[in-house]
Amino acid sequence: xxxxxxxxxxxxxxxxxxxxxxxxxxxxxxxxxxxxxxxxxxxxxxxxxxxxxxxxxxxxxxxxxxxxxxxxxxxxxxxxxxxxxxxxxxxxxxxxxxxxxxxxxxxxxxxxxxxxxxxxxxxxxxxxxxxxxxxxxxxxxxxxxxxxxxxxxxxxxxxxxxxxxxxxxxxxxxxxxxxxxxxxxxxxxxxxxxxxxxxxxxxxxxxxxxxxxxxxxxxxxxxxxxxxxxxxxxxxxxxxxxxxxxxxxxxxxxxxx
Length: 257
Prior knowledge:
This protein is of the alpha+beta class and 257 residues long. 49% of the residues lie in helices and 19% in strands. It is built from ten helices and nine strands. Strands 6-5-4-9-8-7 form a six-stranded antiparallel beta sheet, with helices on both faces. Strand 2 (52-54) and strand 3 (61-64) form a beta hairpin.
């Protein structure tokens, strides 16, 4: 399907990352294959809509604009799943002294839509808005395991080399078997897949029969997980996921009345 003109303009936003918070017309032209006049036009449109802002004192560098922060604030404070989940995530952090993440599947990556961290321990690898590869980590695996078989196969076909490289699956049959096992056991533990210093434990939050589940995840150092009652952690996650699902179902029924 052809991308609309507005959609093409928005592809400029995909050029930003934690490692590249500033772009210019040369980067746009080179990476998106656009002429410089077109690149300048895109920049002008994005600046006028406050999605980008020009850095003062530079010859033509741009960073994300104030509208991005406004949209993030609206999302954080109005998303019903996030608002429902926050109290339960805070309780999980208090009980376990681990960080807690709520993660969403976004086509070819997983994105945390909320996080609660113990004692403000932070890392750029994890946290709200931080995308992670779909083939790495417990959040991604537990979400994929609950997708229809054809969608699971689609992901394998797209990321087979990466899945083989990390030693998760070397064939389509092995990948399907892994997904089946994760769904059956109800959780997935990732030890240093995304960040060599961290491990994560995830279970699915199934809030809709039509949408992929979210992942509710515990985040902590690899060393800390070695000295914790693993089964108890799984139990705590499952209890709170069930409460989140129940609360969301209640609100959904109320809204239908």
